[in-house]
Amino acid sequence: MGSADHLREIEADALGRLGAAGDLEALAILEAEVIGPGSPIMEARRGLKDVPQEDRKELGRAINEVKTSIDAAIAARRRHLAASAGEARLAAERLDITLPGRAPARGTHHLVRQVWDEVVDIFMALGYSVADGPEVETAHYNFDALNTPPTHPSRFESDTLYVDYGDDPEGVLLRTQTSPVQARYMEAHPPPVYIVSPGRTYRRDTTDATHTPVFHQMEGLAVDDHITFADLKGTLAYFANEFFGSGRQVRFQPHFFPFTEPSAEMHFSCFACDGSGCRTCGHSGWIELLGCGMVDPNVLATAGYDPAAVSGFAFGMGIDRLAMIRYGIPELRYFFDPDLRVLGQFR
Ligand SMILES: [Zn+2]
């Protein structure tokens, strides 16, 4: 007890155990065991008083050396374990900057708006400009100025959404077509006129696959000297080729609209099957695209133009319909239902 050999054993035992401490918690427990009260080295120091005076100084110094050695080993082990713990935490919390990020969802124009812009661009390239008009319109501009007889069924409340506007004898309504912009524009501008007018229109329709109470139309109007039906055909065939791809054939079927005479419906050869017949064209090979005609002289006269001096053509098409045809969208109401599974496909 207290011999030099015994001290070396204490030191070797303490250093061996400290070297095996796996983490800071285990080290704290070991520290109490190797240098705390009751530990072998402290017991050795306590036993000094029983050592003969002449040996006490020598043995005391030896005990202190061992204690210092163990203290140093504890400190070294603690630094080592603390560093490892820090590295482990860093490793666990490390950001992997090579992982692909999650990009925020990017907003985009609605498909109807994309088609709207594209159609406008095609006509702008031909020298047309864009004209705008009110969505709340008078019966005068929506019907009378467009040569629609007072008894025409489109005026009925079953078809048209009227706005309660006091006793206005004219009738105020949500425009059923973009055509009133024609009448307004001609009143305010002398010929020549080359305009397109895209916008929202309203009808008292029950929602189904191809009807909604609000939809989008684009009206076009050209008035100038010597405008003929050939100009109408050339312009609209050019549009069909630009929008649906080259090689489209166009045909016109006689039709009736109050504000054009003669009037026609324009069909073009199906872009999906090239005319051989498929689902898109209802197996006819042709797709009905728009209504058109030569502006009725009465409409020109109402606007203050001289029907003997100028002539013109007008056309109207459904923007939603263009999008449905080109992208094979089966239901009109998808455009008014904010379902990103549908809309997200067109960005
Ligand atoms: Zn087809």
Q: Can you offer a commentary on this structure?
A:
With 347 residues, the protein is an alpha+beta fold. It folds into two domains: 4-93; 111-343, BirA Bifunctional Protein, domain 2. The protein is built from eleven helices and ten strands. It has helices spanning 4-19, 24-35, 40-46, 53-93, 111-124, 139-142, 180-188, 229-244, 297-302, 319-327, 340-343, and strands spanning 129-130, 136-138, 162-163, 172-174, 193-202, 214-224, 250-257, 260-269, 286-295, 311-318. A seven-stranded mixed sheet has the order 1-5-6-10-9-8-7, sandwiched between helices. α2 packs antiparallel against α4 (53-93). The model has no long low-confidence stretch (mean pLDDT 88). Bound molecules: zinc ion.
Q: Strand order, biggest sheet?
A: 1-5-6-10-9-8-7
> Which of globular, elongated, flat, extended, rod-shaped describes the shape?
rod-shaped
Number of domains: 2
Biggest sheet: strands, sense, closure?
A: 7 strands, mixed
Per CATH, the architecture of the largest domain is 2-Layer Sandwich
Q: Identify every distinct bound molecule in the structure, by name, code or SMILES.
A: zinc ion
Topology:
Layout: H1 4-19, H2 24-35, H3 40-46, H4 53-93, H5 111-124, E1 129-130, E2 136-138, H6 139-142, E3 162-163, E4 172-174, H7 180-188, E5 193-202, E6 214-224, H8 229-244, E7 250-257, E8 260-269, E9 286-295, H9 297-302, E10 311-318, H10 319-327, H11 340-343
Parallel strand pairs: 1-5
Antiparallel strand pairs: 2-4, 3-4, 5-6, 6-10, 7-8, 8-9, 9-10
Helix pairs in contact: 1-4, 2-4, 5-10
